[in-house]
């Protein structure tokens, strides 16, 4: 029952007392007007909140693929701190050539087909996101080997461009963060992906020796070049 309906019922059963004094009836009418104004404001507030929810969904959704955006992926990793998380970073091979041959509209269609295949590789509770450009991520609690197998099966299905079947070619980096910092796993998976891209292997799992860690920000301009020339040079920590 709304406030106005309540007032109407109240007047129906108590009208003889209220009508005895015009002043009282006047105040009841004024009160009804005030309630109507607040009801209108409540409706507008609900409409505004609904629009804000829509805007929030748009802000967290990629316009081309419909996937989550990088911000949402990073939030998921932050919330997963302390738990076992596996991250896969997937980057399209030859995206520049695809755009040049099939226009950017064709490139967007290719990205959408890739997004659909990544969603096929995902399980309930996983998150698939477009990190930006032609780079994607899949965040899961599954074992890295199981994730690699799921991705291989889903990406084995070719896509169609201009009526011609085209294989989906990507480079994938996978990293497991067992109870550590899952946010770091995103950067490590990214480095493993670039290793896969350089070697042409398709998929690589993060290797701390091979992929290494980025040097701290304070190391500049000289760095330790043992890995390149075998000498252990001094490090300038200015």
Q: How would you portray this structure in words?
A:
- The structure is a single chain.
- By secondary structure, the protein is an alpha/beta fold.
- The chain has 2 domains: 3-59; 68-211, Alpha-Beta Plaits (2-Layer Sandwich), CATH 3.30.70.
- The protein is 54% helix and 16% strand.
- The protein is built from 8 helices and 8 strands; from the N terminus they run ααβαβαββαβββαβαα.
- The chain has helices at residues 3-18, 22-59, 70-79, 95-121, 144-155, 182-199, 208-211, 226-229, and strands at 68-69, 85-92, 127-132, 135-140, 159-161, 164-166, 170-177, 203-205.
- The protein has a 6-stranded mixed beta sheet with strand order 1-3-4-2-7-8, sandwiched between helices. A two-stranded antiparallel ribbon has the order 5-6.
- Helix 1 (3-18) packs antiparallel against helix 2 and helix 4 packs across helix 5.
- The longest helix has 38 residues, at 22-59.
- Mean pLDDT is 76; it is low at 16-21, 52-56 and 215-238.
Task: Please supply descriptive tags for the structure shown above.
238 residues; alpha/beta; Alpha-Beta Plaits; 6-stranded mixed sheet; disordered C terminus
Low-pLDDT segments: 16-21, 52-56, 215-238
* The number of domains: 2
Q: Into which percent range does the helicity of residues fall?
A: 40-55%
Largest sheet: 6 strands, mixed
Q: What's the mean pLDDT score? A: 76
CATH superfamily caption of the largest domain:
Reverse transcriptase/Diguanylate cyclase domain
Give the name of the CATH architecture of the largest domain: 2-Layer Sandwich
Q: Name the strands of the widest sheet in spatial order.
A: 1-3-4-2-7-8
Name the shape in a single word.
globular
Beta-strand residue percentage: 15-25%
Q: How far is the first residue's CA from the last residue's CA? A: 72 Å
Query: Given the helix and strand composition, which structural class is it?
Result: alpha/beta
Q: What would you report as the Rg, rounded to the nearest angstrom?
A: 30 Å
Count of individual beta strands:
8
Instruction: Count up the helices.
Output: 8
Please identify the top-level CATH class of the largest domain.
Answer: Alpha Beta
Please trace the helix and strand order, writing H or E for each element.
Answer: HHEHEHEEHEEEHEHH
Q: Write the CATH fold name of the largest domain.
A: Alpha-Beta Plaits
């Amino acid at each position: 029952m709304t406030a106005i309906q309540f007032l109407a019922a109240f007047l129906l059963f108590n009208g003889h007392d209220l009508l005895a004094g015009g002043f009282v009836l006047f105040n009841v009418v004024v009160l009804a007007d005030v309630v109507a104004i607040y009801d209108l404001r409540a409706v507008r507030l609900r409409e505004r909140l609904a629009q804000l929810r829509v805007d929030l969904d748009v802000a967290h959704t990629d316009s081309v693929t419909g996937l989550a955006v990088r911000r949402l992926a990073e939030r998921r990793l932050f919330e997963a701190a302390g738990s076992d998380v596996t991250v896969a970073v997937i980057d399209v091979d030859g995206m520049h050539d695809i755009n040049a041959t099939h226009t950017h509209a064709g490139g967007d269609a290719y990205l959408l087909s890739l997004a659909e295949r990544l969603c096929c590789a995902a399980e309930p509770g996983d998150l698939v996101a477009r990190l930006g450009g032609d780079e994607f991520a899949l965040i899961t609690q599954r074992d890295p080997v199981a994730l690699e197998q799921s991705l291989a099966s889903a990406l084995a299905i070719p896509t169609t461009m201009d009526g011609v079947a085209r294989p989906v070619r990507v480079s994938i980096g996978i990293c497991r963060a067992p109870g550590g910092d899952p946010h770091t796993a995103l950067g490590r998976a990214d480095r493993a992906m670039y290793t896969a891209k350089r070697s042409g292997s398709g998929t690589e799992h993060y290797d701390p020796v091979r992929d290494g860690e980025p040097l701290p920000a304070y190391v500049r301009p000289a760095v330790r070049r043992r890995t390149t020339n075998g000498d252990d040079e001094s490090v300038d920590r200015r």
